[in-house]
Amino acid sequence: MGRTLQNTMVNLGLQNACDEAIYQLGLDMEELEEIEEDAGLGNGGLGRLAACFLDSMATLGLAAYGYGIRYEYGIFNQKIRDGWQVEEADDWLRHGNPWEKARPEYMLPVHFYGRVEHTATGAKWVDTQVVLALPYDTPVPGYMNNTVNTMRLWSARAPNDFNLRDFNVGDYIQAVLDRNLAENISRVLYPNDNFFEGKELRLKQEYFVVAATLQDIIRRFKASKFGSTESVRTVFDSFPDQVAIQLNDTHPAMAIPELMRIFVDIEKLPWNKAWDITKQTFAYTNHTVLPEALERWPVDLVEKLLPRHLQIIYEINQRHLDHIASLFPNDVGRLRRMSLIEEGGTKRINMAHLCIVGSHAVNGVAKIHSEIVKNQVFEDFAALEPEKFQNKTNGITPRRWLLLCNPGLAELIAEKIGEDYVRDLSQLTKLHEFVDDDLFIREVAKVKQENKVKFALYLEKEYKVKINPSSMFDVHVKRIHEYKRQLMNCLHIITMYNRIRRDPAKLFVPRTVIIGGKAAPGYHMAKMIIKLINAVAHVVNNDPVVGNKLKVIFLENYRVSLAEKVIPATDLSEQISTAGTEASGTGNMKFMLNGALTIGTMDGANVEMAEEAGEENLFIFGMRVEDVMELDRAGYKAQEYYDRLPELKRAVDQIASGFFSPKEPDLFKDVVNMLFHHDRFKVFADYEAYVKCQEKVSELYLNSKAWTKMVIKNIAAAGKFSSDRTIKEYARDIWHVEPSDLKIPPPNEPRDTAEEKTLNGTAA
């Protein structure tokens, strides 16, 4: 979620008033804002997408709730020591959190372990351990529409009789200390992005958020006029008309068997009716196609922790497979591929398959990703129910990612096309009229330059490196992962360095290369990549021959509040994943909206950005998805590229020989070995096209006017990538609710006046 203060002021239209008031008190608002901790309660893009979605849902007046876990420790703070990543606990609640309100009156029990008894009245889950879920509510204000929604985060609490109720006569002290075991559930966020770690505590977290949330939703449904009770028994027929639940990846997939358990075991609905309601309620968003990221929980673990849920999953699977067998007799291969249970070795539950079978809609997050989901990853399921599969291209909130972080540019745009674009970003197309307006071109360039100077000062303060603010700011910020190919950027840096050294007198377009992002603590290769970047930076930044032509900075502890500083100052945005691996990306959209040009592959939302702005207005290079598949068929031979490309050979040899690690010459042998022998993401195959494309970038940067014209064309084409547009599509195509841009009357305005205003139709 990042910080909340400035976002709240922006959305309430109070920023100028507050700035002025604070100034009159002899204080500086920006200094105050820097004191607030980021709420870092998720990993990378998936967590930030949820935050943008909450902002858009409130702005569109949807009655929507964001549910999650109130982690005591969020994503770790990253320190760089001697070039290595070191993790520190993110004690973000140390000074309290003024934005949250604990709601003990809505506390709910969550059950674990135990066993299942089959009785005449149905299954009973008994002898369980209970953990209490305490909700904390954070307000989510819409933009200038007097709407405030709720984000409800659950914290784990031990019941007061924890470990004291059962034959535990003796150790009272130990029993109280053991409360920590229950409360550990909400202690810490697992820091993996695009990687599945099948730990028991993680499964507990997933079930904890699901069980508490579903009880909360059903309580609210029963309290509403729709949950009409006939002789104490609730009628759930209207449930899917009143409730839509969106599963953000498979992490909350246990919601499907849990809702079935509530309907069948507790509310005594017949299975078929319960299943029909469940399917109509859930929809599933897929966020990655990397096989190592797909959740596959061992059956043994689920049986121990959630025995009734395992039985329900088996029943769902049996009926699912019976259905497929009736349509495709004797096709055992198809049954095996489509089963929710994977046999062979340890039996596992494929959570993506559970989500597809238990949902009425499945979507990818960019056109190309949704096609891969449909035609490759889940092709058997799509053959069965093609109408279930959709696309919903991701977006970003223009409130945080333009108004808040880049007020200079936001104001400049408003001067030309008015202020309405903030709620309807498609209006940015009006900027096309000003592409040839010399004054506007100069003003856009001036805002960028001011942002760069400000960020250069920040870098000099934090990193003690002298930055040339007229150099091209070439920025690559995102989680560190092999598929995102920070290594390819690194090879380009080494290539630029070698070119400067070979011919110091030759014209070179100066660059400041900024790379930032966190590596999962257990991801050895990602941590080596960080060390390599820092090792290269140390050599480049201290070589007098290079001077201020090339500087390399690894940005420590990349997070939302730092993104808000670096993105407005960026000239070139690096989006260079291997085609077919980045589901969408959202950083790419933030850079486009803030006046950076993109160098990237035809992957994720880059494809649609090129479609919107014209491919000639992005720096697109490298293999397309088809080329990657062809190369896989033929067999990727890294050595051939190394032998054929002298500049690649030189760079790789320098890494391998210890040129960047003279005290430890074989420090990077693992990295080099990976690049030659098991590089799934084919860095060498795109190196040549990447370097040539970077030459075109430098050439255009020399012509400031042509560069800025291209920037304006990009900003004018960024309208599609508002999360408002994304949420409108979810609302209409999946949730079946109508978004409204009506401003509801403020609470201080008398009701009758408010009603008179809306009498001629809409609100009535």
Automatic annotation (TrEMBL):
This is Alpha-1,4 glucan phosphorylase. Residues 749-758 have a biased composition (Basic and acidic residues). It comes from Galbula dea. One of its GO terms (molecular function) is glycogen phosphorylase activity. Signal peptide: none annotated. Its cofactor is pyridoxal 5'-phosphate. Pfam families: Phosphorylase. The modification N6-(pyridoxal phosphate)lysine is found at residue 590. Keywords: Allosteric enzyme, Carbohydrate metabolism, Glycogen metabolism, Glycosyltransferase, Phosphoprotein, Pyridoxal phosphate, Transferase. CDD domains: GT35_Glycogen_Phosphorylase. It catalyses: [(1->4)-alpha-D-glucosyl](n) + phosphate = [(1->4)-alpha-D-glucosyl](n-1) + alpha-D-glucose 1-phosphate. Residues 740-764 are annotated as: Disordered. Its EC number is 2.4.1.1.
